[in-house]
Specification:
It catalyses: D-ribulose 5-phosphate = D-xylulose 5-phosphate. Catalyzes the reversible epimerization of D-ribulose 5-phosphate to D-xylulose 5-phosphate. It comes from Demequina lutea. Belongs to the ribulose-phosphate 3-epimerase family. The protein has a single domain, classed as Alpha-Beta Barrel (TIM Barrel), CATH 3.20.20.70. The chain has eight helices and eight strands; from the N terminus they run E-H-E-H-E-H-E-H-E-E-H-E-H-E-H-H. The protein has an eight-stranded parallel beta sheet. Strand 2, helix 2 and strand 3 form a beta-alpha-beta unit. Bound molecules: 5-O-phosphono-D-xylulose and fe (ii) ion. Fe (ii) ion binds next to strand 2.
Length: 216
Amino acid sequence: MSIRIAPSILSADFGRLESEIFEVASADFIHVDVMDNHFVPNLTIGLPVVERLAQISPVPLDVHLMIADPDRWAAKYAEVGAASCTYHFEAANNPLQVARDIRSTGSRAAVAIKPGTPAEAVFDLLTEVDMVLVMTVEPGFGGQEFMREMLPKLGALRKAAADAGTDIWLEVDGGISVETAPEAVAAGADTLVAGSSVFGHLDRAAAIANLRVAAR
Ligand SMILES: O=C(CO)[C@@H](O)[C@H](O)COP(=O)(O)O
Ligand SMILES: [Fe+2]
């Protein structure tokens, strides 16, 4: 199985975002954290910036919406060019409808769960989404410590998806590095978000290559 790497631009230099994105062009996706200071206690970027990033990025965008009311907003991010659009289960009034709205645009739909949310919460959605994102930190900030106690959720999701006759991607986000990537992959992750462990290195391409080797 080939592992997908998605550098999170939360740890990039926002003053030179375009060149930062080109420095991680060897990645499979660019992970874009959208935070609204309501669902999480942090504020980043919104729809107009994501739209422009989608136009200039050499690799597809994996947009992670940490926002209230994804029922209203999620499909709009897909419409402006997010190849994959992830909303939080905890924030959605109608999680099933949000997934369907995203998919109706042609983008991949993904649902995320915070550390306090059990994997079972999204079992009913597994045939309606393309990916589940298991948070391995509390959402809101980069550079936090990896919560390895979240890893059993991956096995549970993999089994539930197989039981439901569907094949989905499983992404982990938070504290992923060359040390923790092997654990996440062994537990069932196939898509790794990495913020500080990519943008914390001057040579971003080497950091991505090192993650790929570690994940193998
Ligand atoms: O969604 C989030 C944080 O809420 C992430 O995508 C972070 O940006 C990951 O950063 P690192 O833990 O890899 O530094
Ligand atoms: Fe994220």
